[in-house]
Amino acid sequence: MIRYALICDAGHAFESWFRDSESFDRQVKRGQVNCPTCQSSRITKQIMAPAVATRKEEAGQPMVMPAAPDAEIRQMLRALREQIEANAEHVGPRFAEEARKIHYGETEERAIYGTTSVQEATALHEEGIEVMPIPVLPDDRN
Ligand SMILES: [Zn+2]
User: Fold this and answer.
1) Ligand 1: centre distance to CA 46 (Å)
2) What is the chain's pLDDT, residue by residue, as a tens digit (142 residues)?
């Protein structure tokens, strides 16, 4: 999995996970990547500010992120999920509702996880509530 910092044609910056750079290119071409703020499918990678090169010979070197083998990625994602499941309360589809209650102090402050729509996640984000998407493992979809 690769996380890209992306930007839409209206200038909204966001981040998204892709299997690899080819799948990013393919999904953008098909219009399957949408800005969470305005739903635009004209998405490009954000130009990253280059790191300061301390030595001359480092300048101009292409930065390559090696693709991790699938098994390694799955293990990483599984570990992340296990950590979340061990430390957060599962609230299922009530996620957005509970997140708001916590944010507005109507219930005890705690970490929660559950399911919500992209629209709800965007709305929560606009209200200043931090939410993080958890990548779904292929074998979780059964
Ligand atoms: Zn946008």
Assistant:
1) 13
2) 888 889 999 989 999 998 998 999 999 999 999 999 999 999 998 865 555 544 444 445 454 555 666 777 777 778 877 888 888 888 888 888 988 998 899 988 888 888 887 788 888 888 888 777 766 555 554 4
3-state secondary structure of 32: coil
1, two tokens? 């999995």
Phi first, then psi, for residue 101 (nearest 5°) are: -60, -40
What tokens does 57 get?
Answer: 């010979």
The amino acid that residue 113 corresponds to is Y
Report the separation in Å between the CA atom of 68 and the middle of ligand 1, taken as the mean of its atom positions: 30
**Residue 112 in contact with residue 103, Cβ under 8 Å?**
no
Is the pTM of the predicted complex or chain greater than 0.70?
A: no
Report residues near ion ligand 1: CB below 5 Å: 8, 10, 12, 35, 37-38, 40
Domain ranges in the chain? Answer: 1-49, 68-137
The 3-state DSSP class for residue 103 equals helix
**H or E element that contains 4:** strand 2-8
Measured on CA atoms in the order 91, 142, 29, 2, is the torsion positive or negative?
A: positive
